[in-house]
Design brief:
Length: about 425
């Protein structure tokens, strides 16, 4: 196998994944923690994202005022992100400078500083971020859809959290969240690039294996009950444009139907990052003037989430007209199998996007950790083969199973004509 991955579990339970790639003198290192908005109870929504912000406030060994300059001075770049299921931190550095990133991540896994002053400062930043989102029609509509789609499961709330919680979460709440979830046995270290595996593994052991194992965090397990009938909602807000969003329940990334649905998604909207103007929804809705634009997307999640389609309406057309055309396109997929040549084209598109998203060293390291959050690295290595096995009958079956109007939500954003 080209560029095999070495996978090791340290004595403290931390999973390490190493992939040698000697195409350039660069190394990308990612630390992933299995904690995201999925792990947040009511009253603490947004706490994972806020904790991510606090991780950039420094430690005694790496004070905040020198962190960014240190990485930049060595020719590196770094960032972090919080999702529904995970929080990740990465540094991509010249190969001979990667030790700085490793020392930084090992230190802030246990020694990050959470002062009352920094918490108060970051509260202002995050509340301002939330207020900015509330001026965006798609955020307002998307949040309303998510709230309605999940009454029980913690996917109910947005990653940034509810404003009430952002005002009430305390310094101790944040620190407790950090100490609960930022333990080595809840983490994955994924490193790709120009190194020797034996040498790198030895250094990883020196830095990370000394960190004490923690108790595995308890998880919120609240399966969402099946929807009984279509739900429609309306959101009013600033702007001049009317939007409609349609959301269907979508299985987890490890469900057997996931790959057939990826092909179906490519048929409807095109594979992410490629031209979608030849795809079914664009031809039916945009080319014929029913909408200004249409797009659709799914996410790879631990628990079932949503497949969402968003339509942007011209001012002289009623949203219901576009919804009727949309339903006709779905019915075509349900009534008879898609021609094999069209399936082949959709698979080719999806393969191209997958290959593009895997080509550089940073992306290679990303995929190792990312797939570990909901499955394992074999999910990544077998992805293309599973796509290639999807048949026209598979696509017809999943269209019939998941794209039922009785299971969906339809939300319309009505602009009030006022600016943000």
């Amino acid at each position: 196998m080209k560029n095999p991955v070495t996978q090791v579990t340290l004595k403290n339970g931390m999973k390490v994944m190493l992939k040698e790639i000697h195409t350039a003198p660069i190394i990308s290192s990612w630390v992933w923690y299995k904690v995201g908005s999925r792990d947040e109870a009511t009253g603490k929504t947004g706490i994972s994202h806020w904790t991510e912000h606090m991780m950039f406030k420094g430690t005694k060994k790496f004070p905040a005022n020198i962190l960014d300059r240190s990485i930049s001075r060595e020719g590196g770049r770094w960032n972090a992100a919080t999702s529904r299921d995970s929080t990740r931190y990465y540094e991509t550095m010249p190969a001979h400078k990667i030790d700085l990133a490793l020392r930084l991540e090992a230190d802030r896994m246990t020694n990050s500083i959470f002062t009352e002053k920094e918490v108060a400062s970051e509260r202002t930043v995050i509340i301002s971020e939330r207020e900015g989102h509330e001026n965006e029609p798609m955020f307002l509509l998307g949040e309303a859809m998510q709230n309605a789609a999940f009454r029980v499961h913690p996917y109910h709330h947005e990653i940034i959290g509810d404003m009430a919680d952002l005002r009430s979460i305390t310094r101790d709440d944040l620190y407790t969240h950090y100490r609960t979830f930022y333990v080595p046995n809840n983490a994955v270290l994924a490193i790709a690039g120009d190194f020797e595996t034996k040498v790198m593994l030895q250094r990883v052991r020196e830095l990370f294996e000394r960190i004490p194992k923690g108790e595995m965090p308890s998880r919120l397990i609240r399966p969402e009950p099946e929807r009984k009938g279509e739900l429609r909602l309306t959101v009013e807000g600033p702007g001049e444009t009317t939007f409609t969003q349609i959301a269907y329940p979508f299985p987890s990334a490890t469900h057997p139907d996931y790959f057939a649905l990826q092909v179906l998604e490519s048929l409807l909207n095109g594979a992410s990052g490629l031209s979608y103007k030849t795809c079914r929804l664009y031809r039916a809705l945009v080319d014929k003037g029913h909408t200004v634009d249409v797009s659709g997307w799914s996410e790879s999640t631990i628990d079932p989430f949503l497949y969402r389609v968003t339509m942007i309406h011209p001012p002289d057309r009623k949203p219901e007209e576009a919804l009727t055309v949309f339903d006709d396109e779905i019915k075509k997929l349900q009534d008879k199998p898609v021609p094999a040549v069209e399936i082949a084209r959709a698979v080719k598109q999806a393969r191209a996007v997958f290959a593009y998203g895997s080509e550089n060293i940073t992306h290679q390291a990303f995929w190792m950790g990312y797939t570990s959050m909901f499955s394992g690295y074999s999910w990544y290595t077998t992805y293309l083969n599973k796509l290639a096995k999807v048949t026209p009958k598979d696509v017809q079956r999943v269209a019939q199973t998941y794209f039922q109007s009785s299971k969906r939500l339809v939300g319309t954003y009505i602009p009030n004509g006022k600016g943000a």
